[in-house]
Specification:
5-stranded antiparallel sheet; 11 strands; 7 helices; D-Maltodextrin-Binding Protein, domain 2; alpha+beta; 6-stranded mixed sheet; single chain
Length: 225
């Protein structure tokens, strides 16, 4: 509604039972792209510790890193902690799925790590994308009321404090697709012309590690009626 950048329409596919059946609650998330030793990030560590470990793994100073964080009041303390380390911060208004995906190509996006709290279903979608591109991610459901704990247990969540790995959120053969709605670092937004609509889509598959970009020109305007 606000025409902000990096808005995506996304879908993830996997075999039944291979993606976390996440309740509609918040989730703590941390994610980095490919090329780092397994275990570089840990949701149980402080932001400063995670940034220090990432900097050492990359062979740079913490001040050379950029963390992506959603611009929300709930992140005020997190933003202060990250700023205190000397790392740069990229605040985004919405779309933490895009924020996580942006960690996979720091050269293009300028983002090295995603940290913060967002929707749990979006966390599962982001984990599916990282399964296809490579990377590391952890998530923990925020079940801060008895009602949320009970709802999560009905959906199969036995440990309300469990830290989920990327593979626990999305396993097996995963297919992920995203189409740009508005312009962003990764995808162009929808383009309207008098006789056509142009879309920019990326399709990824974990088993083959293939990433396909599709620029489609849709001439049948009636189906967009």
């Amino acid at each position: 509604a606000k025409n902000l950048p990096n808005s995506l329409a996304v879908i993830a596919l996997a075999e039944r039972g291979k993606m976390l059946y996440a309740p509609d609650v918040y989730m703590e998330k941390i994610a980095i792209g490919p090329g780092y030793p397994e275990g570089t990030i840990d949701l149980n560590l402080s932001p400063a510790e995670n940034l220090d470990r990432l900097a050492k793994a990359r062979g740079v100073s913490v001040s050379d890193l950029t963390a992506c964080i959603m611009d929300r009041p709930r992140h005020a303390r997190l933003i202060e902690e990250v700023r205190a380390t000397g790392a740069a911060i990229r605040l985004i208004g919405d779309g933490d799925v895009a924020g996580v995906i942006h960690t996979t190509d720091p050269q293009q996006t300028g983002i090295d790590i995603y940290i913060g709290i967002g929707g749990a279903p979006e966390g599962v979608l982001a984990a599916a994308a990282l399964r296809c591109t490579g990377g590391q991610m952890q998530g923990r459901l925020l079940l801060d009321t008895p009602e949320k704990v009970a709802r999560a247990r009905k959906m199969g969540v036995e440990d309300p404090n469990k830290v989920y790995s990327m593979n626990e959120m999305a396993s097996g053969d995963v297919i992920f697709a995203a189409t740009g709605v508005t312009d962003g670092n990764m995808l162009s937004g929808v383009r309207f012309a008098p006789d056509s609509i142009t879309t920019h889509t990326v399709v990824m598959r974990s088993s083959s590690r293939t990433i396909r970009e599709i620029k489609a020109v849709h001439k049948d305007m009636e189906k967009f009626g």
